[in-house]
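so my prof wants the structure for this chain in the tokens format not the other one, which i didnt know existed until like an hour ago. anyway here's the sequence
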Amino acid sequence: MAQSSESQVFFFPYGGKRSFLGGLRTLFTTIAHVVAPGDAVAVKVHMGEYGCSTYLRPALVRRACDLIKAVGGKPFVTDTTTLYAARRFTATQYLATAAFNGFTRESLEAPVIIADGEEGYDGEWVSIPKQAYDCPLDRTKVAKEILNADSMIVLTHLKGHELSGFGGSIKNVAMGCVTKESKAGQHRANRAELDPSKCTGCGECVEACPFKALSIVDEKAVRDDEKCTGCNHCLSLCPEQAFYLPPGAKEKFQVYLAHSAAGVLSQFPDKVAFINFVQDITPDCDCAPPSGLPVVSDIGILASMDVVAVDKASLDLIAKAKPTEKYRHMVSSDILGGINGTDSLIQIRAAQELGLGQMAYQLSELK
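here's what i got, hopefully its the right format
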């Protein structure tokens, strides 16, 4: 996107007398120009893992779809399959989980489409226009149905994330708009290592690995690095904590996220906008049930054409908020990064370096 002195970020704060649905309507007017009459509009949203309770509410997504229709767009609600094997690993599983969480054609009055196909490999490779921070990622495979859209509205529940500090619009695009191949390409940046001295050979990781990358040899887990995609399912389930992240893995992962986002967004010049819902701000993401108690109280909704600015503004508002009782001891400008053991501004700085936007912004509060 074109650089100027500051990017515009529009903010509807919670806590006033106006409803969040009315606030979302007003915010949408600031970014509605990305949708032309007749556009097939990808409404990108994480519809929550099975058992999660803090994903973006279907009513908010429904309102966004209604607003898109009002300007002549044809919305479809979309996401992609997961790299880890749970209840969204295939399109069939994801649609069942989405329906359980309240996302259906009937509730949204819009189609619900898993963009990368049944197994998660339907897409097209696109080049990443620029590289930074010595990142070797030079292409990403964009999910077919997202790539075929005329425009995109990215709806993001902003929250913490164990591997990237926080999950905002950058991560929603980087990981959520690509196929399994490119999810794996990013996750290899923070692939877990195995400490054999802690491994008891129980075999839980072998049974759970969806890619058959693990086996037991001489009563110890052994990994086939060619088969391993870096989904880190083993990291989260090992009862002995034999898997661990190497130093710098989370920081490297964030750089890869920024590069993947750059590839996706290169396909939507001036045809994409971002809405961050800064509420239910849990320490972990909507992939992880339970995702924990809120870190701060609900703040509001932000909208921008600039993916860097909207994420930076969201984090700045969180930094100004009073932490809840559990986190009252934490004084940090990056509380989500502090909880998750990383500097979560790395992805924002990398995205700025790649030309996706800028960290300097003007926040305009809408009443």
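also thought this was worth mentioning. DSSP finds 13 helices and 16 strands in the chain.
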